[in-house]
Amino acid sequence: MAVLNSKVLLVEDSKFLRLANERALSKAGFEVSTAADGEEALKVANDKRPDIILLDMMLPKISGTEVLRALKGNPATMDIPVIVLTSLSQMNEEKLLGAGAAAYFEKSSLDLDKSSDRLAATIHSILGRVNNQKKQTAKA
Questions:
Q1: pLDDT (tens digit per residue) in 53-85
Q2: N or C, fewer C-beta in 10 Å, the chain?
Q3: Taking each helix axis from N to C terminus, what angle separates 64-73 and 38-48, rounded to the nearest 10 degrees?
Q4: Do strands 31-35 and 103-106 pair parallel, antiparallel, or not at all (unpaired)?
Q5: What superfamily would CATH give domain 7-139?
Q6: Which secondary-structure segment (H or E) carries 9?
Q7: Residue extents of the structural domains in the chain
Q8: How many whole angstroms separate alpha carbon 16 and alpha carbon 10?
Q9: Which of 60, 57, 76, 50 is nearest to 68 (CA)?
């Protein structure tokens, strides 16, 4: 399991969902930064270098898809895992995972009370995998 206090960037334009998820993730032991649009997301990702990013797809200024593409195309942020949070149907999952997303959550399936544990567990799992990969690379 990844260490607590891992830095999470939560990118969500809905103030209600942003605050609710920020509270749940903070309660789960994460250090949470937030962004309300795609432009802010890229700036915060570059400035704070989070351990993982939770990215909404429907964002003002720069779409989530473009943010994902920009993050994966930037050497400074390309290795940061991105979990996509979207209200788009699961038909897009394969395309988003192919574009570099580490996981995919449909917002409609995220009951904030019950699924915040599942989301936190997914974050821990992905960060654990990333840490293991870094250890393996360091040994090589």
A1: 999 988 999 999 899 999 999 999 999 999 988
A2: C
A3: 30
A4: unpaired
A5: Response regulator (3.40.50.2300)
A6: strand 7-11
A7: 7-139
A8: 13
A9: 57
